[in-house]
Specification:
By secondary structure, the protein is an alpha+beta fold. The protein contains 19 helices and 31 strands. The relative contact order is 0.06.
């Protein structure tokens, strides 16, 4: 066995607990038996002896069950170890809490041997991932529901794929795979080809050649009816003996040569001018040693356009090689080029077309020439651009998620202790204004963190049923203040507007960002129009590499009369940190935030602009088909509950000491009794005291060791009536499925204020 086995903490605890029960039953049996012997009462003696025998039999039966369970569990673990032992992919076996039980040889080579009883999945991946605890937690939560889970992670060293599977014995199998980079090339069109050795032995024939000839041949003399002549028309033998082909030759290296069989076409006087392949369904060019086109077929003319003609150089209608095309041709002719295939861009004015150009050296009448095979690579380049964008956004999203988590902890401590200080100062105090400034700037920092999470689509949304007319009506007063006196804001609504489902606060943020950008684009004043209407798409619409499915949508258009956006910058406006404003005037997060919010809501956003003619942003939101009630989009101020007091017992579990200190003081100020724990393990240790009554658990979600939902589920087994408040700097949807399985639980995102915390706990208590 090549794996390194580490005893499972959970199995060890079970075995020790079972042993203790057996010993306790045996001692009880012996005690009862001794008591029965020494007691003189006749009636008591049979009862004691019977109880002694019963306890003894129970201890034997229980011990047998323990041995059976241990045997079955050991058999399962042995089987799983054997399955992963020779796997070339690094694989690990862990218990339900994440303690590593076994590593196969590939995992040992990559991560090192396990330290008995100390290594966890999180600690194993710590050198590979910047923040492994959140990834491990998400995978465990999803696997708990579906039985398996998988997630792709982009690191500085490459692309990893982490997967986890349940074994059925409360153990997990983890696999860490390296995902190769997406290939940048695709195979070109397959031409019939024969590969010949030094003695003209037929070494290989591709599928196209077998289809053309009719069967697989073993010698060249069986392929052709007469000795083959390169650069001329030859008749093939075999089942398709009536076929004639034009034979060209390409040096295959190591004394080998490749013969390509092209359709001969109709025999005319122009056969020697390469018109024999006019009808071949593959774009082909014949190029001389200087790069000038000597001949081309109909498919090549259709692809390249009107600029393609005889004696025209390749550089006249192709670009993007990064060096002179003539150098590439010369290297191919002399056999020095390691890259016979390149991706180039055609100089077409009507549309953007990328082509894959494959060069093949031929000899015709003793003179060298080149055949260029073209393949449309526009879709491939589009997919490549989408993949690069996806990789970039994923990397930025992971960075934003990690940064936001740490910042939310810091901001919770800052704003929380500021709230505590404000309770001890009134408005006449000299320090009151300074504390208010600290509090306001902490809230601004929290809003900036929210923007980081917005464009990476990792924020927590609170969707509700909205009518865009009511939403814009509530927002009009604020928008008029934003645009100023020189700009006019005009709203126009469809009289029959269907409801949508979105986060009202985030949707208002999108509209404010778009209006502010429109205002900045009109320094001399102008008009900003916001139009809403219902739009029905009969067919799917593809635009900007995005496909909008058919159906009913509410379209919102925000247009201005500003300076416009140049065409070369139009596709970059939604990229994070990209801005055309001067330093200090913009962060480059406004439009990227709007893009993230719209996409996370399930909508679409597009931009049209003309330099000097203005810009129009169009947003599409799916219509809510089945709704019970359309909520009125009115602002409801939360009732101040700072005076609410409680008398319950709160168990506070938080690994960040400053956050724990603030939360405990805030709850004690409201009259609660607070028990503090810095980890899940410490919390469970506190709950071992059965005489302790706890009303609410307030716990962080992601912590070193056992995470929040895991320890809460274990604690609720003996205290099912306790209510739970989860707090986290990560988005709620990262563990929403795990929370849904825990009854009487709510989520409170960081950073939270003193009132937010106490109100949430009060609501859970009552």
């Amino acid at each position: 066995m090549t794996s390194s086995f580490v005893p499972a903490s959970r199995l060890t605890q079970f075995a020790l607990g079972a042993k203790n029960h057996v010993v306790a039953l045996a001692i009880a049996a012996a005690t009862l038996f001794a008591a029965g012997l020494v007691l003189p009462q006749y009636r008591m003696q049979p009862a004691l002896l019977t109880a002694s025998a019963t306890a003894f039999l129970l201890s034997i039966a229980f011990y047998g069950l323990v041995l059976r369970h241990r045997s079955r569990t050991s058999a399962v673990l042995d089987l799983v170890e054997k399955l992963i032992a020779e796997d070339v992919t690094p694989s690990l076996l862990s218990d339900g809490d994440g303690a590593v039980l076994s590593l196969n040889k590939a995992a040992q080579n990559r991560f090192g041997a396990a330290e008995a009883g100390k290594q966890t999945i999180t600690s194993t991946l710590r050198k590979t991932l910047a923040n492994p605890s959140s990834v491990v937690f998400r995978l465990k939560s999803k696997a708990a529901l579906a039985g398996a889970a998988r997630e792709d992670v982009v690191t500085s060293k490459g692309h990893l794929r982490l997967s986890v599977h349940h074994t059925g014995s409360n153990c997990l199998i983890w696999r860490i795979e390296d995902v190769p980079a997406v290939a940048g090339k695709a195979e070109g069109p397959a031409l019939p080809m024969l590969l010949l050795g030094r003695t003209d032995a037929l070494l290989y024939m591709n599928e196209a050649a077998r289809d053309l000839i009719g069967e697989r041949m073993t010698t060249l003399d069986r392929v052709f009816a007469a000795p083959v002549i390169v650069g001329a028309i030859n008749r093939i033998s075999g089942p398709n003996a009536s076929h004639e082909v034009f034979v060209t030759e390409v040096d295959a290296g190591a004394g080998r040569r490749a013969l390509f069989l092209l359709p001969a076409g109709n025999k005319t006087a122009q056969d020697q001018d390469w018109n024999v392949f006019q009808n071949l369904p593959v774009p082909l060019l014949k190029v001389d040693t200087n790069g000038n086109v000597q001949a081309f077929n109909l498919m090549a003319a259709k692809m390249v356009g009107s600029t393609l003609a005889n004696d025209v150089h390749l550089s006249a209608f192709m670009e993007g090689l990064g060096r002179p095309i003539t150098d590439w041709l010369k290297e191919t002719l002399v056999g020095r080029s390691a890259q016979h295939t390149e991706f180039l861009r055609l100089k077409r004015m009507d549309k953007e077309v990328f082509v894959q150009v494959t060069l093949n050296r031929i000899t015709e009448n003793g003179a060298p020439a080149l055949i260029a095979v073209l393949n449309d690579a526009t879709e491939l380049k589009s997919l490549e651009a989408q993949f690069v964008q996806s990789q970039k956004m994923q990397a930025i999203g992971q960075l934003a998620g990690g940064v936001a988590h740490d910042f939310n902890n810091l901001l919770t401590a800052i704003s929380g202790h500021c709230d505590l200080l404000l309770l001890r100062h009134d408005q006449g105090d000299p320090d009151f204004s300074d504390l208010v400034q600290i509090n306001q700037n902490a809230n601004r920092a929290a809003a900036l963190v929210g923007q980081l999470l917005a464009f990476s689509r990792k924020q927590t949304l609170r969707p509700e049923t909205l009518d865009m007319r009511n939403t814009l009506s509530d927002l009009t007063h604020l928008l008029n203040r934003l645009v100023g006196e020189k700009v006019t804001l005009t709203l126009s609504h469809d009289p029959v507007l269907r409801p949508i489902r979105a986060d009202k606060r985030q949707l208002e943020q999108v509209l404010m960002n778009l209006v502010v950008n429109a205002r900045d684009a009109m320094p001399n004043g102008g008009e900003i129009r916001i139009d809403t209407q219902c739009t029905h798409l009969d067919t799917a619409v593809t635009r900007d590499r995005v496909t909008v499915p058919s159906g009913e949508y509410v379209a919102v258009r925000v247009s201005d009369e500003g300076v416009g956006i140049p065409r070369d910058k139009l596709q970059k406006v939604f990229e994070p940190f990209y801005t055309t404003k001067r330093t200090g005037e913009g962060t480059g997060l406004g439009l990227s935030t709007a893009y993230g919010i719209v996409k996370q809501t399930g909508g679409y956003i597009f931009v049209d602009s003309t330099v000097g003619g203005g810009t129009c942003f169009t947003l599409y939101f799916p219509v809510l088909e089945h709704q019970e009630e359309v909520r009125k989009s009115t602002r409801k101020e939360k009732a101040k509950s700072s005076s609410k007091r409680g008398d319950g017992v709160i168990l506070l579990v938080e690994d960040e000491a400053p956050v724990r200190a603030f939360a405990s003081r805030a709850l004690r100020l409201r009259g609660y009794t607070v028990l503090e724990a810095e980890s899940a393990e410490a919390a469970l240790k506190t709950l071992e005291d059965q005489s302790l009554n706890v009303d609410v658990f307030v716990t962080d979600v992601v912590m070193p060791g056992m995470d929040g939902p895991s320890w809460v589920r274990k604690a609720l087994q003996t205290r099912p009536e306790v209510r739970v408040v989860f707090v986290s700097g990560y988005a709620e949807d990262s563990f929403g499925e795990a929370q849904m399985k825990i009854p009487n639980s709510v989520f409170l995102p960081k950073p939270f204020s003193l009132n937010d915390l106490t109100e949430t706990v009060h609501e859970q208590m009552h």
